[in-house]
Protein 1
Amino acid sequence: MDNLAIVQNVLKEFGKIIDLDSIALNDTGSCKLVLDDLEIHLEIDDATDSLMLLSPVAEGTEQLMADALELNLFWGHLNGCRFTLLRSINVLALLNRLPTTGLDITVFEKELNTFADTALTWKRAFNEMPVPDEQPTMPDCELQKQNLLNQI
């Protein structure tokens, strides 16, 4: 079975669970879920035989991008996800990939829940970050990282 068919079957089952009949990937192999205050984009990546989960978490600033690169080292706080820049819209997003091999509704639900929780946590943390002018004398980068980690 090809990647598109695998994911379409999983999404069909997921739609039944959440009472949504029309959840499916479009012709380009992508779709968007909106869960409360969180937007999650799903997209097939045939090159890696995976389903990408992508969620915007903050407007991109130079300092935030630099800090996000450092935060990518903290596997535990990111639950296997990574931050990435969506350059065309200047947004920092959280990204995870699920292998399509062995992907079923149980794996999808578990991974989607973990991803959504992680994205929402970081979205809130970034939105609650103090404005740089209000920060004490600690270097901006270090203080922002410390603030983020304290909020998690």
Note: The radius of gyration is 17 Å.
Protein 2
Amino acid sequence: MRFDEAYSGKVFIKSRPTHEDAKAIIFGMPMDWTVSFRPGSRFGPNRIREASIGLEEYSPYLDRHLEDVSYFDAGDIPLPFGNPARSIAMIREYADQIIEKGKFPLGLGGEHLVTWPLIEAIYQKYPDLAVIHIDAHADLRVDYEGEPLSHSTPIRKACEKIGAENVYSFGIRSGGDRDEFRYAEESGLYMAKFEVAKPLKEILPKLAGRPVYVTIDIDVLDPAFAPGTGTAEAGGISSREMLEAIHAIAQSDVHVVGADLVEVAPNYDPTEQTVIAASKFVREILLGWVK
């Protein structure tokens, strides 16, 4: 599937009618084939779009309006149910098309494994790429129960591809096993535990001028703010701190070249606060990171 093919479903608020003049392309990756606890993140992209209808179009944080940035919501990639290898290949092919056209890819997940082919595609164009990873989990496993294609492995794969010293993780409060934290210490990966905004602000000057890919797992938020996720972890950050982090990146000198927001599983949150928060984060990303 091509990102410029006709799409008749729901779109993120203020999406342009065509892709030609869009600087950013929003696309959904409705995959949850490898989750180890609660499935349902494949429903995340469309629910984020639906929640965006309730957004104000002006951001008082950034003093920008959604009319100030051109983006096109291309809909969801039609991924083959239950086939992670083929799904990853399709996401990579899709991202390659967006990057080739010089547009900013903004992916909506889906489980966190969908980040891996996006980083691969971005790295092909930017060999000096750095990755900012905001998450409750380290995602540094080599495999999960013998399966290397797992939502617990994308950051390990990124480290092995671009060099662990180019990966910066924030908000980590769960790893899965001790080996993940040992790997972080020994590999040169930067890891800030429990917090996001403060350590991120300290690191951003070191990344000035570099191309940066940002991946945000919604479970970095405390379940009080985002219960609608597959692997919720107590002790997380607030929605306000997540916004502070997004704005810190927007006001820095890093060159954000792509991003994703993953692991929204709306069925576990009848209050809809998770998708409401996610849609607001997407608005701020569009206004702050798409130059």
Note: The radius of gyration is 17 Å.
Protein 3
Amino acid sequence: MAENEQALAVIELLYRLTRSLTEDVRSHVTEVADLDPGEFVLLRAIAGGTTSPGELSRAVSSHPAATSRILTRLSRAGLIQRRPDPDDSRRTEITLTAQGRTVTRRIAARIRPRLQQRLDRLGAGEAARFVDTLRLLLPAEHAADRP
């Protein structure tokens, strides 16, 4: 396959994979809570230790205004808590509530088996290499390790 065709194939395949995974995830997310996959990804980032709105926007490649709207929705749903950062009152600290931790764990538990079936198609060690490769393809500011 020519290099220019390879680049276009990557776009097509990632698009199709993303749509397929999003639909799988959407069904599991909505069975547990009134959330969408993007909201679940944000909850996972918070669970992983990303605690400021700006960091969350960067971590999930989202516009700050969109992240703020999602955080408001998650707060109203009782899944997160916002409070001033104890070290810097200009910053807001975001944490999961007990309900947020429970919902995040329940959704992850539902998603893992189906996703693992897909990853099991890869040989030993290939799944880890695949994840590493995807991180390499992200712009540097979005390639931080996530839980």
Note: The chain has a mean pLDDT of 89.
Protein 4
Amino acid sequence: MRIILLSGGSGRRLWPLSNDSRSKQFLKVLSSPEGQPESMIQRVWRQLQQADLQAQAVVATSRAQADILYSQIGSSVPLVIEPERRDTFPAIALSSSYLSSIEGVGRHEAVAVLPVDSHVEDEFFSRVMELRTVILSGLVELALIGVEPTLPSSKYGYIIPEIVPEQAIGPHLRVSRFQEKPAEDQAARLLKQGAFWNCGVFAFRLGWMLDHIESLGLPADYEELRNSYAQLPKISFDHQVAERTRSISVLPYQGSWKDLGTWNTLTEEMDRALIGRGTISEDSRNTHLINELDIPVAVLGISDAVVAVSPDGILVSDKAASPRLKEVLRAEAEQRPMYEECPWGWYRVIDYNRYDSQSEMLTRRMNIHAGQRIPAHAHRLREELWLVLYGEGEALVDGDRRTVREGDTLLIPPGTEHALLAHTRMEVMEVQRGPELTDEDYVELGNGAG
């Protein structure tokens, strides 16, 4: 069985830690079995390895998330990068064509699709493998996993099965219909009908998906589909495919499953109440503080709350109210990300100013891991000033290589090739100045220093 991991979307429900470049699945607020900080994507990737499925997986994502994915789960992971964000159906279609055209997967192989932001136990992946059996049996076109609900929740979609013994396919049940997030009273009625939570995990035969792409008048070849990506409907897989497919089964799952999409659900799975610099008073019960800044934060006498502090902002919220966060952030939607992980390390924006329509300035502190490099590149519009704060490395500026260490400065005019290789861990303060400071003003030139 092949696996498609869906890691798209920008997600602001975990603001201020999540932003357009660092979505919720990349926040290192969980703990690994060794007690080390771990993100949702790192947890799922580790669990796939334990289930002997990691080598069968590709990750569908956006260009903005490629660097942080490589940073967190390794540069060898195969990524299917969407030319633009267009919802889950286009992402799955492009990934399916990648498996066929690039990796040579046969049309009869089963493919399972999983989100990266669900918190499940290891045995869940054994259940995922069972989807392959029913798909390859040819009895259904689509096979899903349905989580047995613990309460009538309005936060999830529901799968309503046909509760007729002859409709069962082994442990699987035929699906009657779907219900998007209902009100709690309706959810209670659905539970009496044997409904399951829809956890977003399903499987199909690769050829069946390729046929669906071609039925839309689009090519199943990967490169051709990539070039035609804007023609794919901007729609979820549920609406485009699942709700229009008649032959579907659902495999019940009774174990632990949780969507860590809001602060109240995420903090339930955190084994530390305090991450970063700060203090929580003893009478602040069931309160979590996550602080990414180098300033102290004190929480006194506030219970059932989450306090999150990052370069992007500060959140103080009652946990029960935290799902409303997205509603009140519309005014901040266009703010540039102030923190980002990269394959070479990370950076934090310290200051940003627009002086007039032709003059912007941005200052950021960069941390480059020992042995890592900022590849050779140039900028058409902006100049940069590098000040080495800590460590030692080798810089390339306009063809000139030189050793740099604490206190050294480098002025990089527009159009100048530059790169940096860190011999030790390095910290560099970078000041950018120009008429327009955008990620698009970047010309990659090669490996550069080293």
Note: The mean pLDDT is 91.
